[in-house]
Amino acid sequence: MYEIDTSVVEGWPDPAALEEAAAPLLEHAQGVVNVVQAAASEWSGLADVYRAPEAAELVAAFGKPVQVSEALRTGVVVVYRALLGYADTVRDLNRRRGLLLDEIEVFYRERDTYLERVALMEGMGDGSASMSGTAVAYEAEDLDRRVRSLAAEHEQAENDCARRINSVPPADGPVPAYYDAGTATDLAVDRTRSRLHYLESAHGGGAAGSLEMLALLKSLTPGQLLDYGMAEADFLRSGLASPPPVDQVRDWWAGLSPEQQAALMVAAPGVIENLNGIPYKARAKANRVNLDAVFKDPRTSDEDKAALQVIYDALEPADELQAAQRSIVSFTPDENGKPLVAVAIGDLDTATNVTWNVPGMRTTVADGLESWTKSAQDLYNTQGQSLDAPEAGRRAVVSWVGYDSPEEPPSGEVLSTELAKAGGAKLAAALDGFTETRATPEDDHGRPRLNVVAHSYGTTTASYALKATRHEVATATFFGSAGIEWREIGSAADLHVAKDPAGKPEVYVTAASEDRVAPLGILGSGLRGREGRWDPTGDWFGGKNFSSEGGYDPDTGTVYTRTTGHDAKGWAAEGSGDTVFAATSDHGYLDPDTESAHNIAMTSTGRGHLIKELIPLRHEERPGYGGMDYPTGPLIERDLTPEELAKERSK
Predict the structure, then answer these.
(1) Distance (Å, rounded) from C-alpha 376 to C-alpha 498?
(2) Three-state SS across 304-364?
(3) 210 DSSP 8-state letter
(4) pLDDT (tens digit, 9 = 90+) per residue, 85-137?
(5) How far does Cα 535 stand from its chain's mean position?
């Protein structure tokens, strides 16, 4: 009774297998074109040695195979794009299916309890028990409807993929117009490519030159774009040095045909991947293409491949069914000898609450991306607990390893603000780019709340960025700060952050009493003279301080643990020598169930005003050596009993 048929949502293909199957298509198709073009080039040499009435016809005989090979390649691009789109959809459907199956599991347990109760009551002669099954029946009907709806979505996605693939004309059919082999077209293409090459040599010629390059790329057909991408792979992997204004990029992208967009993501991924104004979903695909190209490049060292593998791993959450989608927001293959990357958790094109999570020292792709993305996931999860549905489903967090962060001591980099200033410029461009990319009349999701969360040296970086941004962010939260350069930033009011109704900036700060690293960074920065930094938790800054010491919720008795060191994600074993500076396991600033993580989730979702002052964590007495009793023992972290909570409330 009350069974739900879930077989209709089984047997879906593996998204990773679809992507793996699609990956070699473009390479093989280009190989066909290369072979045919090489043969045609050799064949054309007959014109110099063969003299006969039919010579011209014979020399031109390879024209058709060349056109057919190019048409084949264009068709493969369509197939490639269809398969990747289908894989993206199935991945999202798998996640939603997992959540729905969990709901069904809970329903079955509640149903069984209900049926047992009915049987018991009927055995006692109470015939009215079965009348209470209406709610159970309604819930079963609703779950069944949602299962069938999910199955229908998959069927539609499968049909859409098949339709796109079936729309590709036969390779021996009519050749598309953009493969016109006439001399005039060839000359126009040569002139376009010559101008593009000149602009490349001139390093783009500034924003105006970059805009001209985009216009020239738009003038090429999909096949010509793929040819150009093969010839200029290294430049097109790196992108534009001076991107044009976002509104011009947005108009340019919208003016491209779907086939041109698909070709550019393959032929010029570096141009597309970091270009503000282009939807983040398209940028994510271009970033993945570029990541694959760099990883497979025989010139890429084993050390660099190991770093790039960390990016691949960061895109795969531990629990794929339960986690939000992940994608690459930006990717720079080589910045001072190492890659930079930003990984989004959630959909940046539709999210209404977005948080940029900025790390501190020694956070490189190779050594820090894994941990920092786990912390970003922790923040994403904790935010979900503080938001109401459906708003909780429209959030995103960016793990931004997008600047060259300083090495840890004994290196003196962390004591200087040089890398923070350079990173701040990159961060400001990313934040403004996001705001302007989403600021379109057709965005029916509304203008998103943009928040910045920063740790350690990342707070120094974020402070420079927020002073330089053109657009305000909704909130900024600094934790475990390595200090703010007070001569450049006199107070929180200097940052482009929204203000509360009382006119105070929505800038929040916290520092745990057991964080021994941040104060050393602040103190050490003063050794460099004018670059000295001050602690933003001080009155001079004017931020809104909150606690990271842990405690008990005065209303519910729920316990929040304390932060025991400098790390965003605690890792040290309790009682080990590592705990002198490192946070213990589960006691980092962003670890779930810490007071700091709870409060940061509140501030970064516009609920900072709801932060509560907690009842301090309790101490317990325990026997000491020689039978003596210490007046206080270690902190303990547990839920208060109702009696203890009542006693604390009465104080």
Answers:
(1) 23
(2) HHHHHHHHHHHCCCCCCCCCCCEEEEEEEEEECCEEEEEEEECCCCCCCEEEEEECCCCCC
(3) H
(4) 888 889 889 888 888 998 898 888 888 888 887 777 777 765 555 555 677 88
(5) 30
